[in-house]
Structures are given as C-alpha cells and as structure tokens.
Write a structure and sequence with these properties.
Elements (H helix, E strand, L loop, with lengths): L3 H4 L1 H6 L3 E3 L2 E3 L7 H7 L13 H5 L2 H11 L4 H16 L6 E6 L2 E6 L2 E3 L1 H15 L10 H18 L6 H11 L4 H5 L3 H26 L20 H16 L1
Antiparallel strand pairs: 1-2, 3-4, 4-5
C-alpha cells in the first residue's frame, strides 16, 4: 500500500490543492467542518470487518454503491454523504457527478473524468489523510487493533470529563493565540486539529518542565519537547497491558 503521508507530504504541509486525473482535491476549511465530518463516514467504513466473504472480496467502490443501492435503511444517507464529499473536496456540484454500473462493477464519472475502483481507493485515502492528521489506515493485526481500541476507550473514559464542542475549540485557539475567529474559519481542518494538539502539548510541557525544574517533581522518562510528534499509537496499549496486570493482582 502506498505511503500517502510521504508521497503527498508537500501538499499536506502547505495545504496545497492536490491534482488528481484532471480534478483538484481541496483541503476542507473549518467553516465546512460540520458538513465534512457528517459526510466522511462514507469513506471510512471498515468493510473488511464485516463477516461476509462477498463484501470482503469487493472493492471499496463496489461495496459503497452496493450499500447505496441495496441498504434500505442507510442507502440514501450514504449517497448524500458521497455527493457532499465530492462537493466539498473536489468542488464538483451534484449535477456533474454520476456513476456507470457495468454488470455490477461501478465507475464514477466526475466532471466527465472516469474514476475506477483502484483510483477511488487512492482518492478516498488522500481525502482522509489531507483533512485528518491522525488518520492511519495501515494494516494492524485484528487482535492487536481490538486491544488498541480498548486501550483508547479506557484512556478516554479516564481523561475526558466533559465534551468540547467545535465552538469551544475555536474559542480555545482564540484564547491561546492571536488568531481571530475569521482567521480560524478560513483555516484548513488539518491545521486546525494540529494547532489544538500543539497548544495542548506546549501547555503540558511547560507545566511538566516547571515542576521538574522546581525539584518538587521527578519523571521516569525525559520530557519530550512540545515541538516533536510523540503520538505513538502503541503507548496506550502498553499502559493498558500494565493496567490489566495490576487488576489481576487486585482481584
């Protein structure tokens, strides 16, 4: 599988429009936040977890349109989601978007450009990586993935005591930087998420260093500077395993 982060790093870093078969993939702005996250689920279904050999063997494009056509409950919803993603990310209106069903094999037609199943896989990956900096679709053993998900659930249960709406996130950035609301609304979602993460990391780094320098607090591991990326997806699993081991001895 292609390393999308590496191949498109230039475009992600500078929030550039990505050329794609004569089309243009645009970074989505904070002003379009709700529309994007209400629609992106159509590109992130973990179809290979569905216990059906037929579905697992399908391309993602064939699977999605099979769902749109045959799912009486959610088919129309997923159709609307896909139309919205095309509108937001490719700047193509619904009247210029259709598909061809050739004996059950789907080809998308966007602004008269044909997108086959392999190209659609690349398109959906670019869109997800372009707008969500923590997105990762690399293969993980299913049992390990389940353990990681459980570790994240426990971590979130213990740390999150309330919700943080988009409005509060915007205000948090305004309170922590010189950005005005208008600046934030015109910011790509990717940079908005990264900025929030950096603000949080910088604050915690300063608190930890102040405590360390005072001599009142000591840490087992060196404090990583806030500039450096340290979101290791396996960290939570290590903490989860440690938690499970402690619980064994407590029972």
């Amino acid at each position: 599988m292609e390393d999308i982060k590496k191949i498109y790093e230039y475009y992600f870093t500078y929030d550039k429009i990505i050329p794609f078969k004569g089309l243009s993939i645009h970074p989505v702005l904070v002003s379009e936040y709700f529309e994007f996250f209400n629609a992106i689920n159509c590109l992130t279904i973990e179809k290979d977890k569905i216990p059906d050999v037929k579905i697992i063997s399908m391309s993602y494009l064939d699977f999605l349109f099979d769902k749109i056509k045959n799912d009486k409950q959610d088919g129309e919803i997923y159709s609307s989601m896909l139309v919205e993603i095309v509108r937001l990310c490719l700047k193509v209106e619904p009247e210029n978007f259709k598909y061809i069903n050739n004996n059950g094999k789907i080809t998308l037609i966007i602004n008269n450009v044909e997108i086959n199943k392999k190209e659609f896989d690349l398109l959906k990956r670019i869109i997800c990586y372009q707008n969500t900096p923590d997105y990762d679709d690399s293969y993980i053993n299913p049992e390990l993935k389940e353990a990681l998900d459980e570790a994240d659930r426990l971590k979130n249960d213990s740390r999150i005591t309330g919700s943080c709406s988009l409005e509060r996130q915007i205000v948090c950035i305004m309170a922590s930087t010189s950005y005005k609301k208008e600046d934030i609304m015109n910011m790509p979602i990717r940079k908005f998420i990264l900025l929030l993460q950096i603000i949080d990391s910088k604050l915690h780094y300063e608190i930890y260093k102040t405590g360390e320098c005072s001599g009142m607090v000591s840490f087992k591991q060196p404090i990583t500077h806030w500039m450096y990326y340290k979101n290791n997806k396996f960290d939570s699993l290590i903490k989860y395993d440690s938690f499970k081991e402690k619980m064994k001895h407590a029972t």
